[in-house]
Each structure stands twice: as structure tokens, then as C-alpha cells.
Amino acid sequence: xxxxxxxxxxxxxxxxxxxxxxxxxxxxxxxxxxxxxxxxxxxxxxxxxxxxxxxxxxxxxxxxxxxxxxxxxxxxxxxxxxxxxxxxxxxxxxxxxxxxxxxxxxxxxxxxxxxx
Amino acid sequence: xxxxxxxxxxxxxxxxxxxxxxxxxxxxxxxxxxxxxxxxxxxxxxxxxxxxxxxxxxxxxxxxxxxxxxxxxxxxxxxxxxxxxxxxxxxxxxxxxxxxxxxxxxxxxxx
Lengths: 116, 111
Known about the structure:
The structure holds 2 protein chains of 2 kinds. Chain A is an all-beta fold. Helix content of chain A is about 0%, strand content about 55%. Chain A contains no helices and 11 strands. Chain A has strands spanning about 5, 10-15, 20-25, 30-40, 45-50, 55-60, 65-75, 75-80, 90-100, 105, 110-115. In chain A, strands 2, 4, 5, 6, 9, 10 and 11 form a 7-stranded mixed beta sheet that branches. By secondary structure, chain B is mostly beta strands. Chain B has no helices and 11 strands. Chain B has strands spanning about 5, 10-15, 20-25, 30-40, 45-50, 55-60, 60-65, 70-75, 85-95, 100, 105-110. In chain B, the strands form 2 sheets. In chain B, strands 2, 4, 5, 9, 10 and 11 form a 6-stranded mixed beta sheet that branches. Chain B is globular and about 40 Å long.
């Protein structure tokens, strides 16, 4: 199957700093990538849909100025958590969509963000 | 808005047992449904993808069924093994590029 990578896998930062997370499709091109957030023992919550060459579409309640998404190429989307606070600590997972033939999503391994 | 529910939330079975995980969704107008496995602290691994026009999909010891009209899907695991222990998530895709996830079933297979 298609492979999606994320970097870093784990990051610890101080409150007030910004953190960038990369999501790459390694062996395919993805016009659409998705960013999810997962709290402990809970399911995935879709944060935004990232479209190559255009602005991301954010879900209701997600602050677009807080979570900056850039999909600059067909293999790379980045999520920047700006001015991070402890409540932003979470597990962030990206996925990339393979359109043909079935619009299947393939997920990255996730990034554990801890804000002190 | 599509709501996805998974029952049970947790399940513990002895090794070798066959088991069924349930997923229900409120809006039957879906494009496809996907079952995933998530190990602790890890990302998601796709297990099976069922298109709206399909009734079931099989991969090894796994069989997923879909009854779109009733808003239900099941994941059947045959001859369970300790290595099957994980959280299983179902996700519904209503319109090509937006998945709604259930809260998952945490499975523990005891040796």
C-alpha cells in the first residue's frame, strides 16, 4: 500500500513556541491530505483538509491562525502549531488520499506533541 | 452531520475465539467505509475498504460487511491471536474526501 511519513515523531517544546510537523507521501502524489488530532483514549478528530496549491479547509471550531497548513507540493503538507500552549498537547496524525480507484486514505505514524 | 458509533468500546477474549466488532452510522449516503487498526501511540493501519456498492470484503482472517440501508458495518475476526490486540476504528466517507471516525473498540486477546 501507499506509504505516508510524518516528521518529527515526537516533539517537546516550551509554551509560546511554534512547531512544524511534516507529512509526506513517499511513493505517490496526493492532491489532498488531511490533518487529524487525537486526544488520549479518544478517536480522531478531523482538523482540516489540505489541498495542494490552495488554502486549507478547516473544520468548525479549529482556529486557522493557530494551526497553519501549507500544502506546497503533491507530496508534502505541513502543519504549524503557532504559539503553542499546553492544551495543544496531543497526537497529530496526517493522511493522504489515493483517489484511484477507491479514494482510500493512508495514514502517517503520527506526531506526539507535548507543550510544557 | 454523520455520526459513527462503535460497540463495544472494549472487548477482551481468549485466544482462538472468533469475534465481531460493530460500527453504525447515521447517514446511509456514504461513498465508502474503511476499517483501521491502531496500536498504542501509533498511526492507523488500513485493514479493509468497502465501497458503498459492496456487501463485504475479506483479507485473511478478517471479514468486513456493510449494510448501507441500515447504517451498519461489522468486522469479523476469525481465530483471534494476541497480536490482534489493538484499537479498531471504523471510518465513514460520505462524499469522496471527508472521513468520520468512530470512537473505536479496544480489543485485548488473552494468550
